[in-house]
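Quick one - first record:
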Amino acid sequence: MKLKELITSARTCRRFKGEKRLSSDILAELADHARLSASARNMQVIRFVTVADPDTCEALNRLVVMGGALTPQQRARENQHPGGFIVIAGPKDMDDFALMDVGIAAQSINLAACEAGLACCMIGAVKKDEAAALLGLPEDLQVRLVLALGVADEVRRIVPRRSDGKLTYYRDENDEHCVPKITLEEAVILKK
């Protein structure tokens, strides 16, 4: 798959086939893509926690919100929870450069998951202190981002901007997850 096709296919997923569990080895392999990715000033300050244990996954799932723009009826049902998680952790005193690493790592994991036939949801809406306690994070680290991973149980696709001009994602009449994107002409503001 060409990179642009991979990026286009790697849409956020909020409904997973809950019975399809991911192993610690699969999660570690996905994290390895992030480890090998670029790092601002090559400081490599972020760390990863893989969560494959079903009980810990369910506990972590209760600490996150996936699909804040969706109605409760449109969100995942209990049998559609992720098959595993990767938590990106970083020092409490991360600077702006190190914060870039979180995004780079998350996108690397997302693309690697898509290439492997899996789906990902990058979650910032997490009770970070409770998640850190659940996972037993060392005192000097904080939860920076949570990635839910698994086998997709929904169709996700890119669509044009909504007729009202909004870019909020939504579910259409077929219950497909639609992600409006601006045009290339809107994105590239200057050509010099």
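second record:
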Amino acid sequence: MILGDLQEGIVIDHIPVGKGMVLYHYLGLDKLNSQIALIENAVSSKRGQKDILKVAEHIDLDFALLGYFDPHITVNIVHNGEIVEKKHPQLPETITNILHCHNPRCITSIEQELDHVFRLTDPETKTYRCIYCETIGKEDDVEM
């Protein structure tokens, strides 16, 4: 499959398969008034398959969000049809409102407007814990 060349914008590459639409939602790409391409299950020499997002606009990205989903994601900045910069997000120390604490005794269950903040406690296993109750966040706790 060949898509048109991107002259200006960003390409978010090496997204784990199945996470492209989740990132589309979290990055607020549905609110943009520009061309966006989501490519799912693209062939990858490194991973076998991957998702790709192409945005025909320069936008501010949440690198903590990208790093949480996969620190191997690559963000390519495109100007005049050429990649002028490559950025790699890092695994963030804290994430806010990405995971949702499911502990019914957590303060976030009572105080609905309180942000759900998780802190990285083990980078090896990518373990995040709620800062209020220490409950371990699980990837399936990602709120959509």
